[in-house]
User: Which sequence fits this backbone?
């Protein structure tokens, strides 16, 4: 987060091939920065991006809004019940069957969870059950569910928590048996080719590379998983990145065989940020260093988040969407 009394997040679209920031639309990749001009100012926190839409929480005045990253159109949203003070936690989801967007939120006490359908009736409903792990920013929406990064163990099996958007209930999903109780330095949840993917990062000192194992869920009902490997030589990544775990899986590009990985290294007032495009089929990869010449950013910029999504030119009009009828 940027220095100073009023740190803010900025949206900068960029070309995914050369990773040069630009203010011209259309574009497919958005970068979020703390700090300087000129684009859209965001106050942390914000949700995941779903079909080019994102929910933003503003502290002063207390307000939650929906933003279309392509058209820059905004829509104010009502706060969840019990949010007269404190900072709410919320996630954005999409039901691909009913074509409905839903917001999952909690009160500042986090005793209850609420869900709201973006429709002609913007009202919050209490979720019937409570989550096993806290709702956090580390989540992704894919295949009609919101998945969280933090895993847990049930009967010696590794499981991840998800929220079924259509049924409006929290559930648990068993990760492939081969994973078992194996230790990973870090794990991620992401979207690979429109499918939920759980990724485990392993950094063993006696290995010449960083290994990331991807388990992609082909069929949620049959628990049909496909395993793939990402291997990046340590010599291609600065040592401090390995030490501070500044590596994350963004997802895949328009080519589902190419995984997008973000790495960053903060050294004093300088930030070395790069993207790694890894081809799962050929195991070839290329590293692109982000260049900020066009943005004239100051030393207040200390980090970024990356997302890859398609454009959404549809207006924020949900008046014809019926409210959810979950039984």
Assistant:
């Amino acid at each position: 987060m940027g220095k100073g009394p009023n740190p803010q997040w900025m949206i900068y679209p960029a070309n995914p091939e050369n990773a040069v920031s630009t203010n011209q639309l259309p574009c497919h990749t958005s970068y979020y920065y703390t700090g300087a001009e000129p684009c859209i100012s965001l106050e942390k926190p914000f949700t995941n991006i779903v079909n080019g839409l994102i929910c933003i929480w503003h502290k002063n005045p207390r307000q939650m809004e929906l933003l279309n990253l392509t058209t820059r159109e905004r829509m104010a949203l009502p706060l969840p019940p019990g949010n007269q003070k404190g900072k709410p936690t919320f996630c954005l989801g999409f039901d691909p069957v009913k074509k409905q967007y839903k917001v999952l939120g909690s009160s500042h006490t986090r005793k209850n969870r609420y869900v709201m359908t973006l429709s002609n009736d913007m009202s919050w409903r209490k979720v019937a059950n409570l989550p096993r792990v806290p709702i956090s920013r580390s989540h992704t929406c894919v295949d009609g569910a919101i998945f969280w990064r933090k895993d847990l163990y049930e009967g010696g099996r590794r499981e991840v928590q998800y929220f079924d958007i259509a049924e409006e209930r929290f559930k648990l999903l068993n990760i492939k048996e081969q994973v078992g109780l194996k230790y990973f330095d870090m794990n991620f949840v992401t979207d690979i080719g429109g499918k939920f993917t759980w990724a485990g990062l392993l950094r063993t000192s006696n290995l010449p590379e960083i290994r990331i194992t991807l388990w992609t869920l082909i069929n949620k009902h049959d628990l049909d998983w496909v395993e793939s490997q990402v291997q990046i030589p340590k010599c291609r990544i600065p040592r401090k990145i390995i030490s501070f775990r500044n590596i994350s899986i963004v997802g895949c590009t328009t080519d589902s065989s190419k995984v997008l990985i973000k790495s960053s290294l903060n050294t004093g007032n300088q930030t070395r940020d790069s993207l790694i495009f890894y081809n799962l089929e050929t195991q070839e990869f290329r590293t692109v260093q982000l260049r900020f010449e066009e943005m004239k950013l100051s030393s207040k910029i200390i980090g970024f988040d990356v997302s890859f999504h398609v454009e959404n030119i549809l207006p924020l009009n949900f008046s014809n969407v019926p409210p959810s009828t979950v039984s």
Notes: Helices lie at 239-244. The mean pLDDT is 74. The CA atoms of residues 224 and 232 lie 27 Å apart. DSSP finds one helix and 23 strands in the chain.
